[in-house]
Design a protein that fits this description.
24% of the residues lie in helices and 37% in strands. By secondary structure, it is α+β, with helices and mostly antiparallel strands.
């Protein structure tokens, strides 16, 4: 291994660390709650709290703790939403209540016409 190899390895490590730091800074700290495709609530994930949203079958109770969110009580036949547990990625879909919780920005990435 010569000096050029060592310089290349150091550069790759430095750029990798910088990339990881910036990717963590861009973390989405909000969850968007939709009822029947209408935005009804924007939740700050950095604040631990409980929220109520009125769904098709009644109240949907949401808990935020440690930058994660879960549905802890809802009225649906199989209670699939409340069985998912805490998460901060992807989406939580509660079809019987027509509630969708999305962790991505509400800004559009692209429009297909």
């Amino acid at each position: 291994m010569n000096k050029s190899d060592l310089k290349l390895i150091i550069c790759v490590l430095v750029f990798s660390i910088i990339f990881l730091l910036f990717s963590n800074l861009k973390k989405n700290n909000y969850a968007y709650v939709y009822y029947d495709n209408d935005l009804v609530l924007k939740i700050n994930l950095s604040k631990d709290d409980n929220y109520k949203v009125e769904g098709y079958n009644g109240e949907v109770l949401i808990e935020v703790k440690n930058n994660k969110l879960r549905v802890y009580k809802e009225n649906s036949p199989l209670h699939i939403c409340s069985k998912q547990g805490f998460t901060n990625t992807g989406s939580i879909v509660c079809l019987p209540n027509k509630i969708v919780i999305n962790f991505q920005s509400k800004e559009l990435d692209a429009v297909i016409g």
